[in-house]
Predict the structure.
Amino acid sequence: MITKQHEALDAAIPVEAIHTKPGKGGLSYVAGGWVKDRMNAIFGPDGWSDTCEWQVAPGDKPVVFAKVRIIIHEPGNPANVTCWREDCAAGTGHGNDAWHQAIGEACTDAFKRAAAKLGRHLGLQLYLKDEDPRSKPARPMPLDMSGRIVEALNGANGDARRVVAAARARLSEYQASAEQRSQIEAAIAKAEARVA
């Protein structure tokens, strides 16, 4: 893997991608489709592949066990494998489509568990909640906060370095939308140009 990929895998999961299961404990998770989309963005659609083996548990209930292996390929050379990760999970189903649900749940959960072994951005962050303070998702930036930051940056003269440092701290403390981040980064660039 290349440095850019390592950096992407170490990035925090955006707050909007984290969901919470209802009920006791409120387990946090990311959707399987989101993980696949991020893997396409990080490795490219041809930069990874996966396999899923599953079997039905003994008995009459729709219970399936699955093992997924995710394979990372060398950029530009899919025949060369750079690494692989695998994990397993169980799935259950209910109603008329119970067996299909059980297979889907087992394969998706095993896929997400295997992907989490590749880095924080693909789900590892959710397992490290209590151990790694960086893993706590940032709070969404209030809409009016970005305006106040841009205003402070535009008015900064002699204290521009201090205001820029404060703005950068807010960007790392809060999860800014793409528009908020773009506005703040443009104002930071202008403030830094005035001091240079």
Notes: The chain has two domains: 3-135, 139-195. The first strand starts at residue 19 and ends at 20.
